[in-house]
Amino acid sequence: MKFLPFILLFFYLNSVAQSASITEIDLNSEKFADASFPIRYPVINLGDKTATDKINSIIKAQLLDENLFDTVITATLPALKQYSKESLLGMEYKVLFNKNGILSLQVDCDAQGIYEYHYYRYFNFDLSTGQQLTLGDIIAPLRYALFKKIMFGKKLNALQEYRHEMKVEADSNFISAEEYNTCLNILKENGCADSITLNEFSLEKGIIQVYDNCFFPHSMMAERPFYELKYTVRKDDEMIKKDFLLRLTP
Questions:
Q1: Rounded mean pLDDT of 105-113?
Q2: Helix 49-63 vs helix 76-86: angle between axes, to the nearest 10 degrees?
């Protein structure tokens, strides 16, 4: 065990220089004559072809294949064009973290179904393997339940603040009593305040952010509670596995 710090240091020094380069596929939605809704799709490039292909196939499967109505198209560009013809209006991406062998991406999409809607997808990768990371890969096993409890507490606090703000708006007649009660009933009916999922998350320098938003119908999206579930990673944080702690802390 006395060699463990040296092993971790060796791993850190080898991973610290590893980052991904990103090129774009740029299109305009075929549903618009101008460039009002640009489509910018990220393509990841690494020195390791196996890891590169794995990452790009995961991104394609979740951004494109899952959204094509009738077929899975093998090549990325034809699949993106097909999605644009069917329902995709716009796409942008943001690199949240790209160092120490970790890549975290946020992809924002606008699409057209029965109505227009906006959604986000989050991707977190270990660049040495191409593996898509889960929080189970990052959080120490014996601390995972505690981490979930902490994030659930943050969510409950945010929803309590939301209820308070909506009550203030109702009392001041900014919204109707009916609208206020409808919002509270939606929270109750969909069980949003009863649990939390940790499937969607992003990584930034010293930050883990979980995304577990309450479902509201499209007609009520403007009233949906907005909150951020962030966990700040400390340099001596026992919540995080040692190898990831070295790679995530400032």
A1: 92
A2: 10
